[in-house]
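Much of the work behind modern protein science is quiet bookkeeping, done one molecule at a time. The protein below has been through that process, and both of its lines are reproduced in full.
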Amino acid sequence: ALPANLLRVAFSRVDLRNHRKITIIDGKIAYTGSHNIACEDFAPKKKYSPWHDISVRVQGPIVRDLQMIFVEDWYLDTDESLEELLDISPGVIEDGVSAQIMGSGPNAYNEAMRQLKHAAFHTAREELLITTPYFVPDEATATAICSAARRGVETTLIVPARNDSRLVAIASRSYYDMLLEAGVRVHEYQDGLLHAKTTTIDREFALVSTANLDRRSFELNFEVSVAIYDSDCASQLRYLQRSYLSRSKPVRLKAWRQRGLPRRLWQNAIGILSPLL
């Protein structure tokens, strides 16, 4: 673990954080996704349990890409070079699939994550299925999702009914009118906190990420995503996503419009603050 440095905290930007979750074993096997490492009895979060996460296990040349991100993160935080880790050959998987790693953050071209997701949403032709715990998108992202639904793509968004961030939950719901009017199917997951950040498109493309659909993930956080171009992998991830649907309740436009005025005003007021959340 890195040592605590109170002076560094005092004089550095507190709005930047490393949100990546990467585990690399012997330079040959790697895991990444939405899983954090925490005790199940961690008091502040226990009341939202069970948490539901998704991570992927990868082998082959793609492991070196994750290793490179880790080495870079370590150097940025400690000024210590771990370049020798990059000399480890991850090997070749003959029967593998096409996949790529995308690291994003304020130290790099920070439009990459946003553009990846926008491009993915715009290529959908039949089905777009998204899970995210924190949905506070910028206008372009919300428009890309709504555009998919309007052109006839079966577009589904699954978010948790109960969220560990109350303000984010309220801000998320300020987008429901726009989504539902466009034809997006919004579902709220009932069985704990759905923390998985996933996208599948047309049963051909899968995206597993540490990034949420919010400006913080696009502009401030250090994130990492795995894009998988394989129908079998996409179908397996879609199966998990569909299992979340069976434990979710749909949000209906007619019922949503009947919510009380105080609730509507509160959601819209918090929604104005969404760029800061």
About this structure: The chain has one domain: 19-276. DSSP finds eleven helices and 15 strands in the chain. Residues 62-78 form the longest helix (17 residues).
